[in-house]
Specification:
By secondary structure, the protein is of the alpha+beta class. The protein has 6 helices and 8 strands, in the order αααββββαααββββ. Strand 2 and strand 3 form a beta hairpin.
Amino acid sequence: LLSQPDPATGAPFSDEKLVMLLKMTTNYTGAVASTWVLHLLAAHDAVRARLVEEVDRTLGRGVPSFEQLQKPATPYLDAVVAETLRLFPTSPFAARLATSTHRLGASGFVLPAGATLFIPIREIQFDEVRWGSNAADFVPERWLVADGDKRAPHPLSSMPFGYGMRRCPGERLAREQIKAIVAMFLQRFDVSSAVVPPSPSMPAAASAPTAAPKPKPTASAATAEKFVLWAKDDVAVRLRLR
């Protein structure tokens, strides 16, 4: 992004325009992801109770600081956001253009120069080989492992903002924004399910094959603007002032 010219002027992007671009994109994707967090919390009483206890104990009713929103201070909040982004990644897929011909692994499959490679991020994040038989379940505890622990998720098993040098440049800002929104929401409101689902299954996202695993809460998902996964229908939760 830093090396690309501004299409409007042909000149490099100014610092001001880069900051504005990051803020605009993270505001949108952050709001969508925060909606999914509230949707999941409304459907999972035990997770919600544990997170509210952590928020009350650590943050109280004041505006949370940057330090308070970091993993050492609020590990369960970090885990809830990570698990939500695994089930409902900001970008359900990514694409890369091969700039040269590559031979892939022992299979010998040849990826020719100029080919477009689609990466099914959402399907990778539901892989039972990596996540176990409960891959479709909302289980934030799977993220509560120490760095370096062999049980820790592999970096490529969940990449809701992409991976590598071309990952979303606004990822860090978006994650902090999501945690701040959710924490401040829980400081002020009790969240509960507005509708009792008739069944624990959720329709697959429009971008995913029908055979894909299905998250438990009931709310249809679809892609918007070709890359953002948001709610196809209204997300209904019941709110009560604390």
